[in-house]
Amino acid sequence: MSSGWEAGADLVVVGSGVAGLTAALDAAEAGLRTVVVTKDDVVEGATRWAQGGVAVVLGDVPGDTLDAHVADTLAAGGGLNDLPAVDAIVRGGPGAVRRLRERGALFDVRGTRLDRTREGGHSAYRVVHAGGDATGAEIERTLVAAARSAQLTVLDGHVAVDALRDVTGRVTGLAVLSADGEPGALRAPAVLLATGGYGLLYASTTNPATATGDGIALALRAGATASDLEFVQFHPTVLHTGPAAGQRPLVTEAVRGEGAVLRDRNGTAFMAGVHPRADLAPRDVVAAAITRRLAETGSDHVHLDATGIDGFAARFPTVYASCRAAGIDPATDPIPVTPAAHYACGGVVADVDGRTGVPGLYAAGEVARTGLHGANRLASNSLLEGLVVGERVVRAVLADRALAAVSAPAEPAPALPIADRAVVQRAMTTCAGIGRDATGLAAASDAIESATVTAVPTGRAGVEDAALTLLAQAVLAAAGTRRETRGCHVRTDFPERDDVHQRASLPVRLDAAGRPVVVADALVGAA
Ligand code: SIN
Q1: Is there a smaller number of Cβ atoms within 10 Å at the N or the C end of the chain?
Q2: Does residue 355 have an active-site annotation?
Q3: Do the Cβ atoms of 56 and 422 come closer than 8 Å?
Q4: Is the pTM of this model over 0.70?
């Protein structure tokens, strides 16, 4: 990309959620010249919308252990987790939460210790939370406040376009569009992607408008591998207020953790016969059961009966406010809920120190596939991963510094396939949500193809739409290749799990024409 302006840094962090800001703060404290690039305001990422909390074993809950947390993570992940990554991240949790509290985060307390809740798939009450159901907001508040007084530069309203690379492929910086659309270059030997997921592939999502898969698209174009992209997690319960597009209010799983029960339109509690943990089954199981029940009863929502929870408004102020805004009183009314796209279990293949296969390019948080989540993320493991890997990546950047390259000239921005966003969202929602088959996946691919033009993205919307187009193609390629049902990937034409032929993660790369393809059937770190 031709650059009108240039600046230099030791580390460029793209994204301002929990992983990005944790890394940026640690990097600045370590003396690295750090620049954070964020396309919206610094507080607009997905982190602040997280409700449930951080899953962490602090040693003060009788009967709970780090091993139990590891076991629950593996059980939820459907055989595709990477055990060393699970181990490292779970065991890194207590220290990371302690450091976050030292930065000022205030978690809810009961008596003399932190209060805990429970969510789907957890065998113990181990989720620490803040502000009742406003954990993400408290973490974001803490990190943004620390960032504002730290020695780092935040470029908000700036859009990351592509990685700059030298002839060896090593990353040497980032091509950026400034807030007024001026192309520029940030020269740096290390670029950390912390851009979150791609919930905006779907018409209805818990994610904010920033979740357009930009980081994964950028990494693929830089030569990185992505994996587990077919495992899009649908949160079982978002508030249903009629047909609507875009971000929907989350109804945290902790509401079921505190005793709420899912009921169909006839008032029948339907989870008891589905899984031994009933309403607290892992969320892929709950979301799929709701989807089946909706089809069986011809309804577009089920109900979450929280009328038995005392003090709902105080314990869940965020959910309560969303419900009241929709004219629902959870103390007396069942809450209408439906599943919606929530979390990308896969992403850019990276180790637990954030290193991708491309020298100089790092990834942390939802954008990355470290192997923690496998085929389905355990609730409240995402903030945990962002905190732990956000710290570890800075140590990796410092260790890799001696290898850093010098800058290379910026290339002109390439023309990219860009499809109409509404067509992408309609096709993915109809054919690649919970319940996919070969015919639907092919139809989605055709629909997106015929709505695609090739153009040079010139602003934020163009960059985002190019990313969504690439991610749609990649998810469809992976979902078409995985001919089984596992975790949050439900194939109605292959309803069983196939541990003989399919027990491997599917690596996705760009081919010579820039199209995402599943490369062979190489294994990416399955446990
Ligand atoms: C929730 O509170 O239900 C969402 C938390 C998460 O996705 O981990």
Answers
A1: C
A2: no
A3: no
A4: yes
Read off the DSSP letter of residue 415.
P
C-alpha to C-alpha distances, 506 to 478, 502, 510, 511, nearest whole angstrom: 7, 9, 13, 15
Strands (E), 68-117: 109-110, 113-114, 116-117
Determine the atom of ligand 1 nearest the C-alpha atom of 119: 3
- DSSP-derived letter for residue 23 is H
Q: Cβ(319)–Cβ(133) under 8 Å? A: yes
User: Which DSSP symbol is given to 143?
Assistant: H
DSSP strand pairing (335-344 vs 516-518) = unpaired
Q: Determine the residue of 206, 235, 318, 382 to mutate for testing ligand 1's pocket, defined as the one with the most ligand atoms within 8 A of the Cβ atom.
A: 235
CA dihedral over 23, 25, 26, 28, signed as positive or negative: positive
Mean pLDDT by 10 residues, the chain (527 residues): 82 97 98 96 74 94 97 97 98 98 96 94 96 93 94 95 95 94 95 98 95 98 98 96 86 94 96 93 92 94 97 95 96 96 98 98 98 96 98 97 64 89 97 97 98 94 98 98 96 96 94 93 48
Mutate to test the pocket of ligand 1, among 128, 250, 290 (most ligand atoms within 8 A of CB): 250
Domains observed in the chain: 6-196+343-399 (3.50.50.60), 237-338 (3.90.700.10)
Cα end-to-end span (Å), the chain: 40
**Cβ pair 65, 132 in contact under 8 A:** no
DSSP 409: P
Alpha helices of 401-459 — where are they, by DSSP H?
421-431, 438-450
Catalytic site residue from 283, 377, 421, 436: 283
Q: Alpha-carbon distance 195 to 32, whole Å?
A: 20
The answer, yes or no, to whether any atom of ligand 1 lies below 6 A from the CB of 260, is: no
What are the residues facing 207 on neighbouring strands? none
Atom of ligand 1 nearest to the CA of 237: 3
Q: Give dist(CA 498, CA 487) in Å, integer.
A: 12
DSSP string, 148-204: HTSS-EEEET-EEEEEEE-TTS-EEEEEEE-TTS-EEEEE-S-EEE-----GGGSSE
- Helix axis angle, 66-76 relative to 83-102, nearest 10°? 120
Q: Which of 453, 460, 501, 395 is nearest to 209 (CA)?
A: 460
Mutate to test the pocket of ligand 1, among 89, 247, 253 (most ligand atoms within 8 A of CB): 253
Atom of ligand 1 nearest to the CA of 377: 8
pLDDT at 401: 85
Q: Which residue has the tokens 């919206």?
A: 40
Ligand 1 pocket, 253 CB below 6 A? yes
Task: State the closest ligand 1 atom to the C-alpha of 382, by its place in the atom list counted from 1.
Answer: 8
| d(C-alpha 505, C-alpha 227), whole Å | 6
Element (H, E) at 287: helix 283-297
Look up tokens 């249903």; give the residue. Answer: 240
